[in-house]
Design brief:
The chain has helices spanning 9-35, 70-83, 118-128, 146-156, 160-163, 173-179, and strands at 40-45, 60-66, 87-90, 104-110, 129-140, 182-191, 203-211. It is of the alpha/beta class. The longest helix is centred in the N-terminal third of the chain and has 27 residues, at 9-35. The model has no long low-confidence stretch (mean pLDDT 94).
């Protein structure tokens, strides 16, 4: 079955232009922490323009980087060429990964669970993991303060998903992982960027969950 067509032509181009500034603001350091300690085979879900590729540690022998948006996938292929032959970029969606059951040691999801069917994507992540495999995640999530949470609900119901490629800011992503059969073993909650007024997408988590 061919993957579903996913295209956000305006958002993908804006994201590509803005992502460099986000990396300098500190996101690059979080990517390094996200991928630290990974070994063996990895499937990266929603690879975007490939900004994780330069941060994979030497212990990773293979990365299948799945990205459904054609524009971002082309950018990711360029980044993969610079990162080396262990990274393969493929068309596919989070809800329908081009991988066999139990094929991978780890799954990486960064800034993707806000814009997909969470239950389906996490079920797929669990399917392709070996027993005891790990999910490494870096996501923005539901705020812990009532005021910002209300703002998130309001923007999710109006313009935010239209402007930002289907993104929803008020998701309890950690709970969704637990409901999908993962045990969260490491978690760090933080605000990004650290300075300035918080945006609906400022509340973030980074961590590791293990297939139960």
């Amino acid at each position: 079955m061919s993957p579903a067509k996913v295209s956000h032509p305006i958002f993908s181009r804006i994201y590509t232009r803005c992502s460099g500034a986000m990396e300098k603001q500190g996101l690059a350091a979080y990517r390094t922490e996200l991928l630290a300690g990974l070994q063996g085979s990895v499937v990266e879900v929603g690879a975007g323009n490939g900004l994780n590729f330069a941060h994979y540690p030497p212990g990773v022998t293979r990365v299948l980087a799945v990205e459904p948006d054609r524009y971002l996938r082309e950018k990711a292929q360029v980044a993969a060429g610079k990162a080396g032959p262990r990274i393969e970029v493929a068309d596919g969606t989070a809800e329908n990964l081009p991988a066999a059951d139990g094929e991978f040691d780890a799954v990486v999801m960064s800034l993707v669970l806000c814009s997909v069917d969470q239950a389906a994507a996490l079920t797929e992540a669990r399917r392709v993991l070996k027993p005891g495999g790990t999910l490494h995640f870096l996501e923005h999530v539901r705020a812990g303060t009532p005021g910002l949470a209300r703002v998130q609900r309001a923007v999710d119901a109006t313009v935010w998903p239209l402007l930002f490629g289907g993104c929803h800011t008020h998701r309890d992503t950690v709970r969704a992982m637990q409901d999908a059969g993962f045990t969260v073993s490491q978690i760090e909650r933080f605000r990004f960027p650290e300075s300035g007024l918080p945006s609906p997408a400022s509340t973030c988590v980074r961590g590791v969950a293990r297939r139960s």
